[in-house]
Amino acid sequence: MSGPGPTEPPHEPTPGPSAERPHEPPRKPGAGGPGPEQPGHPPGAAGGPAPDRPEAGERVPDPARPPAETDAPADASGGAPPPEAPAAVPPPEPARRLSALTMVTAPIAYLRNFLVPVVIALVAGTYSVNPWVLGSTGAAIVAMLVGGLVTWRTFRYQVSADRLEIRRGLISRSRRSIPLERIRGVDITATLLHRVLGLAVVRVEAAAGGEASEEGKLDAVTAAEAERLRRVLLHRRAVLRGESAAPAGAPVLAEGAAVAEGAAAGAPGAPAAAPAGTAPGDDGDGDADTETYFTMPLSWYFYAVLSLAYLLTPFAALAAVSGVVSQGLGDAAAERSVQDAGELARDLYLRTSEGGTLLLVLIAVALLLVVLAAMPVFAVVSYAIAHWQFTLRRRGHALVTERGLFTRQSVTLELRRIRGHELWDNPLERLRRVVRLRAVVTGLGQTATRAALLPMGPRATVESVVERALLPFTGPLLRHPRAALGRRLFRAVAPFAAAAAVAAFTAPTWVAVALGVLALLGVPLGVDRYRNLGHGADAHQVSVRSGSLHREQSVVHREAIIGWKWQQSLFQRRTDLVNLQLAVGAGPGGYTAIDADMAESVAFAEGVTPDMVRPFVVREPAADPAPPRG
């Protein structure tokens, strides 16, 4: 399926001082690489002896100036030394302990896990005055307190030059070593107890197979120490990776990706530059390099009534209560004989047949009305607990989200790891033009919660935040062929129509009518699914949209696409449709343009990544011109 592409030189010429490599930002003074007047190796560096006299363009040390000003290499504009020069790795820190208040939080954590058995033992021991039960319960509580003391005395953590070392245990000792350059993120959480005591939990996510056991957890340190650890770990990781700050005013698209053409300092969507010497992910020394993009207003909590998941919260609570009650009734019935259970069932039947049916119906209706009235209240309350004071801000070269009422969670997402964003909603949210925002991040677990950048909110506000914090998508979405409409209608209508036809002969009439109504409702659903299909591209990003009950528009950077996949079913071949998947090394791993035109999808992929697709495209040879008539 391959054909000769356009002729290209076998070797790419090395760019000169004023040339730019493809997909690379213009080099600025001090922004990377030896300058046009600098040698490849500084004098005295490995790879060659130091010259006896300065080369052309090399600064001559001035004996009248201090060594700190003369020994530092600079480029022609007198800027900072090139990032290729090995950065000084900070010295290792001394080993530290957790906060002394761990002796309070650790026993409470142990007690929470064994709360039910301990309460049952205490109640049973008090009721029957059993000294063995009371004594064993007291011994268990004392053991939990001793466990907290042992945890505080034996737990040590140390930030060395290139690793985070965690040691713990008295009898069974463990030692965990996490390379700093493989750290993916540092999250800070604080439960209600931790916040009362001024503590926090630091979770370090490392690229070590994705197992939860490979992550480091420090529970609990002071809130100030947690913030300091986050800054230190991210800064040292950046130093070990040799990363440098992005050019001033340029949006960071991806690691090694091109800077958007025409982006200027202060332009919308371009994060402000970090201070000089600040590495990506480092937040600086304070709030000087912090910008708040969003703080959740009070009116946003009422959007919870548009989410079906939060509206069903009362039913989940009712199911839990019903489970407890049924378990208690089952235990009570088990204490009686089979004959007593039969007599109880017979009495209940007689009471119901004598007029209790109406009472039961009224109770059920009243209970249903109470639950329906409580649905919006429960939705708003549960939503507020989860997203209380949701905040999105930029710290250095990272986006930080904070939320939660009882458990406060802080998630740090590096801009260099963000490969795009997702906007998703449901039909109720679309009626109010409400949408949610989530980042497409590489190497992030639990993306449903940790990658959330904004909760439900007005689309105009969300898009303005995307314009300021990320990179907005400005291209149009191509409409899919009309054949895709037929497939959407068939999938939404045919199953219920077939079931209604079968139920008309084998089931009660109301069942067939209900299935027929569902088949009719499938028509607008199929039309809406077709209208929401689309894919497109602008100068820097690619977007794919699909879905109706859960509509999602995904936007990813061009540089993040690592492959394309065309997939056709037997029915798609008849209409020349195809599912085009964009393979991305972030988020779920790929995004699919459903039922796109085959020829158009190939041209689309070739236009986005020509070097990747062009070698596999077979073009029809041009027809030879007809010979002139003699």
TrEMBL record:
This is PH domain-containing protein. InterPro entries: YdbS-like_PH (IPR005182). Residues 52-62 have a biased composition (Basic and acidic residues). Keywords: Membrane, Transmembrane, Transmembrane helix. The chain crosses the membrane at residues 109-127, 133-155, 300-321, 358-385, 489-505. Residues 152-231, 389-464, 530-602 form the YdbS-like PH domain. Pfam families: bPH_2 (PF03703). Residues 269-281 have a biased composition (Low complexity). Residues 1-16, 80-93 have a biased composition (Pro residues). Residues 1-93, 269-288 are annotated as: Disordered. It comes from Streptomonospora mangrovi.
